Amino acid sequence: MLGKTVLIIDDEPRLQTVLQMTLEIMGQWSVLLATNGEIGITIALEQQPDAILLDMMLPDMNGLETLAKLRDSSFGQEIPVIILSAKDRPVSDEQIDSYKISGVLEKPFDPLLLSDQIYNLLGWSSLGAVDSSVN
Fold first, then answer.
1. What pLDDT digit, counting tens, does each position of 1-25 carry?
2. Which of 47, 56, 81, 123 lies at a 20 to 30 A Cα distance from 36?
3. Rounded distance, CA 40 to CA 48, Å?
4. pLDDT for 19-77, tens place per residue?
5. Which residues contact 88 (CB under 8 A, 6 or more apart)?
6. Main-chain phi, psi angles of 115, to 5 degrees
7. Cis peptide before 111 (omega within 30 of 0)
8. Pseudo-torsion of CA 113, 31, 17, 42, nearest 10°?
9. Sequence-separated (6 or more) residues with CB below 8 Å from residue 97
10. Phi, psi (deg, nearest 5) at residue 52
11. Tens-digit pLDDT profile for residues 77-98
């Protein structure tokens, strides 16, 4: 494992399973799961994941409400968040800036490309990346 931990906040159990398997196998990350915004915020503040994948359509509060509440905490201000959405343009450029959103991934997504997309959005080094400083 690379030591990265990703929190998935999504209320669809099948999608959570696909995301979890994909990120554990392809990304080699640890995965935490939450089915709504309140649980997600609690887990994020307690566990301090390296990133959060946040669905926009949640049962108790939507993704932006969840993110606003997370950003209100000093511990939740710096956690990178990637929005997951079935909508074509779920957030505006202003919202991306004001909520410090690291990126947006559209559903449905290609599980084979997902880890690389997350690596790229967050600026993380991927497993296949070669460190050019090593001779």
1. 457 999 999 999 999 999 999 999 9
2. 123
3. 11
4. 999 999 998 999 999 999 999 999 999 999 999 999 999 988 999 999 999 999 988 99
5. 106
6. -60, -45
7. no
8. -120
9. none
10. -130, 135
11. 999 999 998 877 888 899 999 9
> Phi-psi region for residue 123, left (φ > 0), alpha (ψ -120 to 50) or beta?
left
* Backbone dihedral angles phi then psi of residue 23, each to the nearest 5 degrees: -75, -35
Query: In terms of DSSP H, where are the helices of 62-103?
Result: 63-72, 93-98
Are the C-beta atoms of 95 and 83 separated by less than 8 Å? Answer: no
58 close to 11: Cβ distance less than 8 angstroms: yes
Query: What b-and-e string marks burial along 90-108, b requiring 16 or more CB atoms within 10 Å of the CB?
Result: bbeeeeeeebebbebeeee
